[in-house]
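thought: user wants a sequence for this fold. calling inverse folding tool.
action: design(structure=
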């Protein structure tokens, strides 16, 4: 295939990137330069650095960190056990299957499960604990978010574990390494690329959650995604909403650079240390 043919096949891809990636970002930046009266201003950017929005930003990063951390704690053992099962592809499909269901439907399902007269409170009543306020709490928000994002954490970790050469584990055990040492010095370093990919797939969308904060957290959890929705749909201050979106895009780009850079080099270094 010559260079001209390759360039021809690149045209649809470049058009897609220009229309659905670059153009929306340019449009968001454009709107961020106007206030609610339609006047050109940089005041939106100055307003973003006020304590209210800084607190909102810290809250968004904190909840995104919690969701990512709990997803990783559940996903890594689950992915490891999947690699040891007989019908691993079937079990993996069953784990991924809920991600095909509409997010709104899953959120409403948890409204029924966690409600005052829902299944969870019925079980608590049965065991003598009594009815608890589960909905509209930080716990319910983090729990539902972890449930929704956990397939995106399991899949890259599972793929990394599947690609791991088992002879390295056997060699570590033959040399007297304990199971914990083998995991810490061999397994985890060699699957770090999958962990980083999973953290990307969870942390970045968790920064901009808004539907779950509305339905499950009852607006008790305020994130950047919630603020963007408020400014675009309620206050009609598109400029401020676009400004928050600009900083959110920048934060996502920085996270991708930090977790995705030198992936090959880090992976090679880990293999050398393991050997």
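)
observation: tool returned 275 residues.
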């Amino acid at each position: 295939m010559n260079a001209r043919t390759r360039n021809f096949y690149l045209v649809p891809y470049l058009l897609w990137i220009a229309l659905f990636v670059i153009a929306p970002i340019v449009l968001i930046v454009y709107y961020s330069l106007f206030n609610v009266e339609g006047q050109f201003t940089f005041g939106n950017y100055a307003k973003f650095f006020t304590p209210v929005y800084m607190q909102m930003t810290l809250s968004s990063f904190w909840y995104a960190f919690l969701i990512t951390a709990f997803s990783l704690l559940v996903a890594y053992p689950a992915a490891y056990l999947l690699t040891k099962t007989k019908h691993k592809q079937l079990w993996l499909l069953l784990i991924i299957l809920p991600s095909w269901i509409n997010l709104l439907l899953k959120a409403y399902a948890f409204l029924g499960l966690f409600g005052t007269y829902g299944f969870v409170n019925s079980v608590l009543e049965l065991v003598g604990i009594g009815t608890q306020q589960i909905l509209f709490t930080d716990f319910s928000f983090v729990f539902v978010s972890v449930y929704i994002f956990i397939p995106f954490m399991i899949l890259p970790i599972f793929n990394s574990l599947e690609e791991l050469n088992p002879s390295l584990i056997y060699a570590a055990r033959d040399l007297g390494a304990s199971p914990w040492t083998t995991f810490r010095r061999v397994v985890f370093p060699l699957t770090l690329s999958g962990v980083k990919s999973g953290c990307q797939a969870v942390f970045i969308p968790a920064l901009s959650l808004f539907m779950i904060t509305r339905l499950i957290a009852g607006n008790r959890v305020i994130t950047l995604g919630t603020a963007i929705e408020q400014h675009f749909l309620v206050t009609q201050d598109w400029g401020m909403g676009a400004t928050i979106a600009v900083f959110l895009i920048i934060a996502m780009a920085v996270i991708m650079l930090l977790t995705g850079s030198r992936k090959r080099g880090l992976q090679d270094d880990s293999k050398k240390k393991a050997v």
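thought: summarizing for user.
answer: Here is the designed sequence. Confidence is low (pLDDT under 50) at residues 263-267, 270-275.
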